[in-house]
Amino acid sequence: MSSHSRPAADRIVSALHGIFGDRLRSVVAYGPHVENGDGDLAEPFSCLALVGSLTIADLEASAARAHDWTRHQIATPLLLVEDEFRRSLDAFPLEYAEILRAHQVLFGSNPFAGVSIERADLRRACETQIKSHLVHLREAYIEAGGTPRAVADLVTASAPAFGALLRNIARLNGPAEADRATATREGARAAELPDRLVTSILALERPSGVKAIDAARLFPEYLAAVEQLARYVDSWR
Predict the structure, then answer these.
(1) N or C: where does the chain have the smaller number of CB atoms within 10 Å of the terminal CB?
(2) How far, CA to CA in Å, does 132 sit from each of 28, 111, 232?
(3) Residues 58-87, buried b or exposed e (16+ Cβ, 10 A)?
(4) Buried b / exposed e along 158-178 (16+ C-beta atoms within 10 A)
(5) Cα–Cα distance measured from residue 99 to residue 223, given in angstroms and rounded to the nearest whole number
């Protein structure tokens, strides 16, 4: 975890402990603040908190702290009762798998110890995510009306989601690498996507990449790559 993230981590753990007391079971940080070392992090600090019980009074107490969390670049914590967490692994396999890939326990026990996510659940969720992305690209392209600027904005805005699709493909084939870039590349290789295209799309996640790449010209090849992902997940066994 970034040294810049430690004050946010301490702040959210202290706040949650003040709300839940001995009902607070675990607090787990995840996302860029766990992955990016000491880099400059624009995204808010994210965490999952598991509790013994969750009441309306707890929500009210959390709501009273929301302004302070926002002011200190802390995302609203994902609050779950322990039993809810274990019962929802099959409902949100991609989301939990992403947390599982790169996380840090801030308080209590590791809720992921001994937890496994079924491959069948992952494949089904991947199919839904990829095909939804494909439909979105087609519809948004039509709505862009052929305007190069609008198409470029579409490709740029969807680049982070494309990277997530590739990391989820990597998960289907075994434990995903903790390193975000490596996991993304593994997914692209598994689906046999052109390395040049993947590099260009992923570069759009950085401000410097947006300036250097003609995103509108990438659209036809980008769309074909997402169609290839859909075929890949359909035939995955």
Answers:
(1) C
(2) 29, 30, 15
(3) beeebeebeeebeeebbbebebbeeeebee
(4) bbeebbbbbbbbbbbeeebbe
(5) 28
Q: For residue range 112-131, list pLDDT tens digits in order.
A: 988 888 889 999 999 999 99
Q: What percent of the chain has pLDDT over 90?
A: 68
Give the fold, CATH level 3, of 3-108.
Answer: Beta Polymerase; domain 2 (3.30.460)
- Tens digits of per-residue pLDDT, 15-60? 999 999 999 999 999 988 887 654 446 789 999 999 999 999 999 9
User: Using CA atoms, how far apart are residues 170 and 115, in angstroms rounded to an integer?
Assistant: 19
Q: Which two tokens stand for residue 97?
A: 């798998």
- The partner residues of 28 in beta bridges, in order of sequence, read 48, 105
What global pTM score does this model have? 0.74
Q: Which two tokens stand for residue 105?
A: 């326990």
State the pLDDT confidence band at 175, using cuts at 50, 70 and 90: low
Which residues are CB-contacts of 169 (< 8 A; sequence separation ≥ 6)?
126, 187, 188, 190, 191, 229, 232, 233
Q: Supply 96's token pair.
A: 């939990």
